[in-house]
Task: structure prediction
Amino acid sequence: MRILRIAMVSGFGTSKGGYFSDVLLGLLCSDALALGHDAKMLRVYYDGTHRERDAEISQRLADWLLNEEIDLVVTDRVLDNSPFARWKAQRPASRMLLLPPPEGMASVPPADAALGFRPYERRRDHGEMGDEVRRAFAMWLAADLASAEEADIPGLSQVRHGRLQSPARSLLEATGSSLHFRPVVECEVISDSAITPAPYTVFGNGGCPYSRDVSQAAPYADLQLPEEDEILRKGCAFCTMGGDYDKRTNQETVASVLRQVSYLTEHLPKPHSFVLTDQHPLRYLTLLLERAEAEGIREVTWLLETRADWLVEHRAALEQSIAIAARTETRLQLYLVGFESFSNEDLERYNKGTTREILLAAADLVRELARLHPRHFGYTRDRGHSLILFHPWTSPSSLLESGETLRANGFSDFFYDITRNRLRLYPRLPVYSLAKSQGLVTDDWVGDEASQTARSKGYSVDIAWRFSDPRAAIAYEACRKLRNDLGGETEISQLVAVSRWSAGFPADETPEPDDAVGDLESALAKLSDRFGRLLQGSCGDRAAPVIFAGACNNACHGCENRDRFFPDDGESLQGRVDEAREKGLPVMLAGREPTLHPDFVPLIERARSEDERRVGVVTNGRRFAYGKFTAQAVRSGLSDVSVKVFAPTAELADRICRVEGAHAQAMAGIEKLVKVGVRMEMRVPLHASALDTLADFAELASSHRVGTIRVEVALDSLGLRNLARAETSLEQLEAACRERGVRLAVSPLPCGMRGFDRMPA
Ligand code: SF4
Result:
C-alpha cells in the first residue's frame, strides 16, 4: 500500500473562525492514520477584509502544501483556490477531494473529486456523524485514490469537462456498523493574527424538521416549480436543510452527543465549549443536560442553534434546561437563531412559517431569560444570528423599514453582520425559481465583490442575481463600503443612512453603483481625514462606559443610543458599574438619558465608591436645570458632565430633539453645573439642519464658560449627502474655537454617537 501524505484543510473567512466545524475532517484524519497513512489537520484563517493579507495567507498555504509534499488534500471549504492550483501545478500526481460536493455540483478547480450524497438524497436516510463518508473515504484510500469509474466508490464523484459528475453509486451504499468518535483535534495553523479557537462541534441530528411546503407561501402559490427531485419544496425557501431530519429517538441522540463530549472533554483543554449541530435541540435538551449531569459532565458551554419561534414554543423545556445548567456550572449560549427578516413580506417569501410579531416575542423571551440567568444563559457572546436584508426584492424602503425595526428594538445585541449578508441562490431552492421566474437571475454579478462574498465566507459559489430595484444595488455596495471602513459598532445607523440616501436616487435613472458609491467614498474620506486630525488633538482621560438603555425625555431623530438593547433594571446596571470599575478607569454613565433612571444617584455613589473614582455622565442636561437634583448628584460624587447640545439656537435644537423648550432647559442645566464647578464639555452630534450654524457653537460654549466641545457623528442624522458640507462646517467650527480659546475634540467616526470612553478634558 502506498503511504499517502494527507492534509485535512479547513479554511476560515475571518480570524475568528466562526462556527464552521472540522470535526468530520478530524474523524477522516484519525481513520487515515489508523490505515497507516501520514495525515494531519491544517486550519487556514483568512483576514477577510484585506486582500494583500489574504494573498499572503494563500502564498503560505501553497508553500506549506509543497514543503510537506502533500499527495492528497481533503477540504470542506475553498475560500481561495489559487494556493491549491499552485500546489497541484508542481505536484501533478496529487489529488484534491471536496467534502461534500458543492451546491449545484459546480466544480471548484483544482479539486478533481468530491465525496457526498447526490443532490436529492436526504439526510433522514443515512447514519450519524458522516459514517458513510468515512467508510467511502477508507475504500478510496484502499483503492489508492483510483478514479470513480475505476474504483466504483459509493458517493465519489469526479470532475469531467469542468463539472462534477453525480456519483455513480450512492453514498448510502457505504453501510456498516457505526464508527468510533476519536477525531484528531490537534492541528497546524496558518494565520496572520492571534486566533480565537472556535468552539468544537458535536453532532446532534442532521438536517431540519421544519417542513412547511413552499406552496403554502403566497409568492409560490401559482409558481410553476421544477419536479420534486429537482427542488427542495419543504422548509425555508432559501435553505437546503428543511423537511429532512435524522429520525432518531431522543435517547439515541443524547447518547451519541454525550459519547462525543466525553471524548472531547478528555482530549481538549478547558474551557470546554461545544457547538451542538442540530436545528432543533430544544426537543431533547433537558434530557441531554440531565444525562450529562448524571455522567458528571460539568462546566461546559453549549452553543445552540434554533428557529426563533421554537424558543417560544419550547419555553418550558428551555427554562428547565437553564435550571439544570445552574446546577452543573453549565452555560447555554444561543449562537444562531434564524430571524432572517422582520418584514412579514420577506418572511413569507422565505417560507419561514412565522411572523414578525413571533420573532419579536422570541427576542424578548431570550433577553428576559438572559437577564434572569446571566451566568447560565446568553445570546450575545457569539452573534451568528441570521438576518438576510439583501435579496432580489430589496428596495430602499424595505431597508429603511428593517433599519427602523432593528433600531426600535435595539437589535445590535443580536446581530453583528447586518449589512454583509445577502441571499444565496442555488438551483434546488424555491427562492431561486421565484427569482428566475421574475427575470432576476443573471449570468454574472454586477461587479465582482458580490460574487466573492459567498466564497469568502466559505459557502458554495452561488448563482448571480440582480436587484429588481437598481437603487438597492447602490445601497448594497454603500453598506459594504461603510461597514468595511467604519466597522460594526454603528451598523444600524449605517443601514438607515444608506436606505435614505439610496431612496434619493431616481429609480428610473439610477447611476452605476460604483459611481454613486465612489462619490460617497471620497466625501467620507475627506470627513474621516478631518476627524483623524482632530482626534490627534482630542483630549480627555480614558473612561470605562456604563451603558443605560432605558428612557429618554428627548426624541432625537437618528438617535443611535437605541440601537443596542441592554437590560436596564437597577441590578443589571449595578453589575455594569462594577464591571466598569474593575477597569480601574474613571466611570462614564452614558446611553439614552441616565439622569432619568430611578437609581441614577445610587449608581453614581457605587461608581465613585471608597476610592473616590471620577464619575461622569453623558446627558441632554435637562434634569440639571433643577438645582436640587444637580446638588444631590454632585454630592453623591458626580465630577464630570458631557451635555449634548443639538444646535446653537433653541428653535433649531428643539426641532432636532423634537421637544419644545429642551434647549433652554439644557442650557439652564449647563449654567447650574458650571456654577457647582464640575468638569464640563458640550457634546455636539452633527445634524444636517445644524451644519450651517455649526461654528456658532464656539460662542455658545465660551459664553457659558464651557471649555471644550466634543463633536460626534450619527450618519443617519447627518445624512450621507451632507458629508462634504459637514467637513466644511467642521473646518469653520475649528477656526471659531481657536478664536475663542475653546478646545475642540471629536469622537472617532466608527463610534458614531456612542464614543463614551473619554472624560471631559
Ligand atoms: S433556515 Fe433553519 S428553519 Fe429554515 S429550513 Fe433551514 S435550518 Fe430549518
